[in-house]
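Q: Please design a sequence for this.
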């Protein structure tokens, strides 16, 4: 086992799952916090799924020498259906990109006093300009944003625990069906794991060491669970009023003073923006192989489509598309669970 590579797997895993919906608080709110104490239990279930299935996915990829998530899908579904699953993943990426663009517009409208449509156009223009510079710019932005996001997460939970109100909603049940609460961690894990395969599959093939992969998945899955719990506790202290905001974590950041609030809002937008450019870049690369258009033209077309879809609104898109994609992704997760490898690993 190689400790450096274990950390690389863990950080990559966390960075892939902890995206913009997580940073704004909407994912945590929709999948966990609105269920009261059931949400706390669900986070534990989700963490176990991330550890177990994250490791299994990377081990499967290493076992078949998969170069991309399409290779893994062909292995799981067969050559014909595997291609269709890859097409479905493109649809998911379109939907997630629209959610990210809408999130950028919501930040401008809710916290910067700029109209939603103007915020969308500004975000689109910045995305298009940056994507002209390629992957190096994307990597640079991510390497700056993620460490600061982790730092502010620690600051928020420290402030929350000092208020002694963390137990007020975490351990209080609401009136939502327990069945929905129990389904939530499976939907959340299925959706995020199906998206994460774009990164975890080639990573598992490259590492190709069983103990290292398992240790990295354990560290990454536990890290994801910890961050979910931190966000859940912070949001729980402000329920139910915080659920009315499109950017719930932005509302919590107000308590830390105007200076910290503006920095945190900028980080939320940066997290949304980095997720958007990554998804649009991935879509552009996939479509470039199938459509006879230049990369610049494809990028513009994708952004225009996302702009039209983002008219639905950030919160509505996230609360509608994410559970729907999660439900479809359950079939993919089921095949991951039942797929046996050449030798037992998990």
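A: Design:
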């Amino acid at each position: 086992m190689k400790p450096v590579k274990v950390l690389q797997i863990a950080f990559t895993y966390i960075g892939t799952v902890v995206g913009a919906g997580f940073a704004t608080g909407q994912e945590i709110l929709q999948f966990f916090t609105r269920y009261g104490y059931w949400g706390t239990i669900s986070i534990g279930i989700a963490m176990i799924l991330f550890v177990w299935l994250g490791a299994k996915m990377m081990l499967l990829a290493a076992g078949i020498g998969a170069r991309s998530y399409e290779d893994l899908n062909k292995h799981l579904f067969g050559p014909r259906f595997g291609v269709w699953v890859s097409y479905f993943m493109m649809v998911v990426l379109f939907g997630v990109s629209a959610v990210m663009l809408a999130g950028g517009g919501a930040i401008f409208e809710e916290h910067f006093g700029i109209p939603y449509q103007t915020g969308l156009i500004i975000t689109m223009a910045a995305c298009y300009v940056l994507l002209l510079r390629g992957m190096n710019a994307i990597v640079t932005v991510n390497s700056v944003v993620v460490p600061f996001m982790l730092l502010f997460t620690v600051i928020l939970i420290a402030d929350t625990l000092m208020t002694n109100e963390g137990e007020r909603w975490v351990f209080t049940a609401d009136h939502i069906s327990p069945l929905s609460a129990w389904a939530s961690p499976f939907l959340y894990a299925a959706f995020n794991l199906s998206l994460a395969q774009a990164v975890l599959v080639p990573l598992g093939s490259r590492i190709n060491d069983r103990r290292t992969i398992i240790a990295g998945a354990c560290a990454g899955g536990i890290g994801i669970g910890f961050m979910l719990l931190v966000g859940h506790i912070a949001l729980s202290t402000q329920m139910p009023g915080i659920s009315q905001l499109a950017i719930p974590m932005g509302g919590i950041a107000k308590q830390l003073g105007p200076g910290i609030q503006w920095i945190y809002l900028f980080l939320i937008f940066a997290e949304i923006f980095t997720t958007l450019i990554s998804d649009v870049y991935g879509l552009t690369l996939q479509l470039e192989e199938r459509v006879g258009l230049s990369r610049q033209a494809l990028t513009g077309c994708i952004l225009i489509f996302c702009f039209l879809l983002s008219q639905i609104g950030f919160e509505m898109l996230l609360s509608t598309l994410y559970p729907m994609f999660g439900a479809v992704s359950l079939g993919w997760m089921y095949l991951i669970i039942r797929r046996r490898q050449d030798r037992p690993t998990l």
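Q: Thanks. Anything notable?
A: The chain has one domain: 3-338. Residues 3-338 form a domain with the Hydantoin permease fold (CATH 1.10.4160.10).
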